[in-house]
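User: Some background: our group keeps a shared notebook of sequences we're curious about, and every so often someone picks one and asks for a predicted structure to add to the entry. Today it's my turn. The entry only has the sequence so far, pasted here. Could you supply the structure so I can complete it?
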Amino acid sequence: MAQCRNLALWYSTDAECGIPASIPPGVRLAYMQTEESDVPDGTDLVFRVKRLRATKPERVALRLVCPTERPDKAGGDVCDLWPLLGRGWAMSDAYEPVVRALTLRQPWASAAAVGLKTIEWRDWRTSYRGLLLLHAGRVTDDSEAAAAVRHALGPVEYPAGALVGVCRVARCLRYQGRWAWHLEDACELVKPIPWKGDRGLWAVPADAVRAALRAVGVVV
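Assistant: Of course. Here's the predicted structure to add to the notebook entry:
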């Protein structure tokens, strides 16, 4: 779904009220479907709760169902593309959106937050593209490379166990046996948010970070 990569704002819609008049022309509508007949007219992309995934799309007259649905192997109530939406789409309030996060050691987390670090090297590939929260873990890197980064950043604080910035995952390319995550549009949070990290890509409820993201011009 390449059209999901450059998104702009969150709006709100529901089946009873239809599409709000405040949504600008040209903004596409995505909807979380909880009942077979509750999709508003004009919906471009539909996410279905797990219990509806066994229903053939033709029966409910859907224009486009999320292509990553897994009716028999779903591990949750939403499909893989649900967290990716966040900019340039209207979205239902039926389910709370989430923002993906990645944990890095300091000083690399702070370096990524200010745009000094633009590539994150990992041993695993990601197909995720879009908004990414940068989380600083409690373990620090004391290598010579890290020392050079600290020198470049100057006398700043290095929060630990906190969300420190936001960026966008633009590409993921393989190079010499490893995967290079290309990070763009980085922005440091005005105030770090204490948060427990996790392995891999993990989710943070959008409501928990909405105010902090709006403070730096990111709307979710």
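Suggested note for the entry: Residues 1-10, 71-78, 86-96 have pLDDT under 50 and may be disordered. Helices lie at 108-113, 144-153, 206-215.
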